[in-house]
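S2.1 Query sequence (F-box domain-containing protein)
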Amino acid sequence: MKFLDLPDDLIAEILRWLDEDSVYTCSLVNKGLRAYLHHDLEFEYRYRLAKHQLVDTCHGRLTYEQRISLLKHFTWMWWSDVGNPKESYEAYRIEGRCIAYELVAGVFAKTDGSSLTMQWLPSLFTPARQITYSRRKIGFPIKDFALDPTQDLITLIEADLLPNVLPRGREIIIHIKRLSTYAPHPMAKEPTIRFMVPYHPQGNYPQGVTIQLAGDLLSIFFSSPPGLPQLLLWDWKRNAIILTVENSMTPGLHLPTGTHSFEILSPRSYALLSTTNSGSIHVYNIDYPRNPIIPPFCVARLMMPSLLPGLQLASLLSHTGPFLGQPRRDGIFTTSPDARVFVITARFLNTPRTHATIFVNGAAFAPYVQGTRVVMPMEEPSHGKVAILDFNLVRDPIAERSSNFDLFTEDIRHILPPRTQAFLVNSRCTSWMIDEDYILGLDTEGAFDEQIRSLEVYSMYHCPEA
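Output structure tokens follow.
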């Protein structure tokens, strides 16, 4: 008996044991299975999700027919070839000076160093709303922050107004709060995390601070004094130190020589990027809490391509989307964690090509660490166009190319460009951000003391009202 000769309800029960990628594969290898999967709404929906590297978060709130219809509309809104510029769905007034801002899981947050403003973007299941916590409610000056709306979490680094050089250690305080109420977070054992930056004759004020969240992992990477990076990792729920390490050559733990930046790869792995020689990426695994006394250990050192003679690598940075502690619940689908893209930016000296941007699929780190849309400025600046690069769409075949980009001693094989399109907008926004469901334009003024006037939202679910 052939598989497709089985009763339909039995076939369905068997196929439900498959994940979305396997369902998609079945549709490619057998015409009969493809016809069956497209005839059944549940499996057609799962097939379409896998094709765009999405996962379902509907939790039964809509029928499969409704989900398929919304998914088709969602895709059309991203990639419709309508020549007319798109109109923003809504514009929100978010005024004032800005020293830091974030867009995570449908929440835009910004601070001027004293107050904190958060704008929840409209979704299928939740309306838009805005909250501002005043300087009086915050209770301290803000240096930087990180948030995770899926855990109702925001962590804020308290700034101090003391001199850069102190004759003693400098205490740094991180506050752990609920995003929605600013109350101490109930999952945190302690409301604050405190650590000391030791005295140094060149100064002990943290500079170039990067704070990140990934589930229960909280990281902070900074330099103090300038040129001497330090890294600290905590379990913010238990207030337990996982790692504290500085760039020194003393025996024991130290950062790799030339460490320039830090990036979380998963809730239990991270990378340190070094500018030594042609550059390298050091991948570390965290065996916490299974072995809390064993520090993170390096499992791989990935070398960047060798540079042409005379060229020098000046900086090496990495950026990726936020890591969420819980699945989003404000829509019917979300990007699969397996589709993550890391954007690595390198800056070079002694060459006309001073910058290079490398897009790395998260699967490249998968062997060590147990694609996504990216919004980019146009090559020729334009207030009416935004370039979208889509790494999510599964396409076959993929064309490979090779080039040394006038930077490297050997040709590098790559599979760029991804699917690209110019997104036409009626806007003069100067900065652009992207979320799974939106493109956001920031209307700003000023260079060194940036002021935000408004936030324009281009929704892929909604159509602007007439």
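Residues 248-252 have pLDDT under 50 and may be disordered. DSSP finds seven helices and 30 strands in the chain.
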